[in-house]
Amino acid sequence: MDYQKILEEIHQEVLPLVDKGKVADYIPELANVDRNKFGIYLLTLDDNAYAVGDVLEKFSIQSISKVFMLALTISHLGEKVYDRVDVEPSGDPFNSLVQLEHESGIPRNPFINSGALVITDMMISSFADPRAEFLEYVRDLVGQADVFCNKKVAASEKEHGFKNAAMVNLMKSFGNIENDVDEVLDLYFEFCSIEMTCSELARAFRVFANHGRGVIDTKKYITESQFKRITAIMQTCGFYDEAGEFAFRVGLPGKSGVGGGIAAILPDKYSIVTWSPGLNKKGNSLAGMKALELFTTKTGTSIF
Ligand code: GLU
User: Fold this and answer.
1) 196, β-bridge pairs
2) DSSP state of 242
3) Which residues hold substrate (predicted)?
4) CATH superfamily entry for domain 63-192
5) Which atom of ligand 1 is nearest to the CA of 62?
6) How far apart are CA 17 and CA 286, in angstroms?
7) 91 Rama sector, left if φ>0, alpha if ψ -120 to 50, beta otherwise
8) Are 113 and 167 in contact (CB under 8 A)?
């Protein structure tokens, strides 16, 4: 299959959508990003890469970070993580407070904000230096050292992160947050503000496509059972209240972020990453989602 040609065709087909989405501006620092950017990067398990567009430019990975947070935490704490966070799709926006009240402070899943905030709390309780440990983990997955948090984005989010603050406080009132509320929020914002390129994200996600094992160094990051579970959560909860639509149109497990990135995998075959900052109403990249739909359609690949 001529993947390069397919990516080039897809680029032409999604170009009209690239400036139609809305850049996330509830984090003011993210509103400065040029919404005309577009990149798509495919990395196969047999180490071939195909790319079109702005694939070497760093962007804010935002919620895509939640996959790394969960993987690192379950690799240390195992199944008990799921005592404090459920694994059901929420069907609600990523920052909704509604279910939390009804469900006694137990978040629906680790990929909505409340779930990732609980995971952050677990990391603070379990790691001597969670900040350093997390960065080291992500750098290791990518195979490269220059992965950093953007402190300006984290500060901008902190300044406007009232809903996230409300969530941590609500969960703390139910006894599901052990640490200081501000400490949890600060660390969570830093994790979301990590910047990576499409190419770097594709390398990190290729480890998940390879069942949690490094492709070059064969290091085992998570067990086979943890791989199965993380992939299932990506499939059912990776796209806010549009997870069903993503499964329906694209048919790959993955995770999106409000920075406009989407990372997806076809286990045993490839990782694929798109970046286009304009978002649809549900907070997923408009052109990115279309590009992935076209990719799985044109290549006839999906998990189904
Ligand atoms: N840091 C963002 C927030 O908490 C992440 C949102 C996202 O990418 O879904 O609102």
Assistant:
1) 59
2) G
3) 63, 113, 157, 164, 188, 240, 258
4) DD-peptidase/beta-lactamase superfamily (3.40.710.10)
5) 8
6) 7
7) left
8) yes
Q: Do residues 21 and 297 lie in contact, with contact meaning Cβ atoms separated by under 8 Å? A: no
pLDDT in tens, 204-240: 999 999 999 999 888 999 999 999 999 999 999 999 8
**Which residue spans of the chain are classified as CATH 3.40.710.10?**
3-62+197-299, 63-192
Report whether 187 contacts 151 (CB < 8 A).
no
> Which residues contact residue 255 at a Cβ distance below 8 angstroms, ignoring those fewer than 6 apart?
63, 64, 66, 67, 111, 234, 238, 239, 262, 263, 264
Q: Which of 41, 221, 240, 270 is catalytic?
A: 240
Task: Tell me the per-residue pLDDT of 252-295, one tens digit each, with 9 for 90 and over.
Answer: 999 999 999 999 999 999 999 999 999 999 999 999 999 999 99
Domain 3-62+197-299, CATH homologous superfamily name and number = DD-peptidase/beta-lactamase superfamily (3.40.710.10)
Q: What is the residue with the minimal CA distance to atom 7 of ligand 1?
A: 63
**Token pair for residue 45?**
């398990």
* Burial class, 191, CB count within 10 angstroms (exposed 0-12 / middle 13-18 / buried 19+): buried
Which regions of the chain are under pLDDT 50? none
- Ligand 1 centre to CA of 258 (Å) is 6
- 41 annotated as a binding-site residue: no
Instruction: Report which ligand 1 atom has the smallest distance to the Cα of 257.
Output: 8
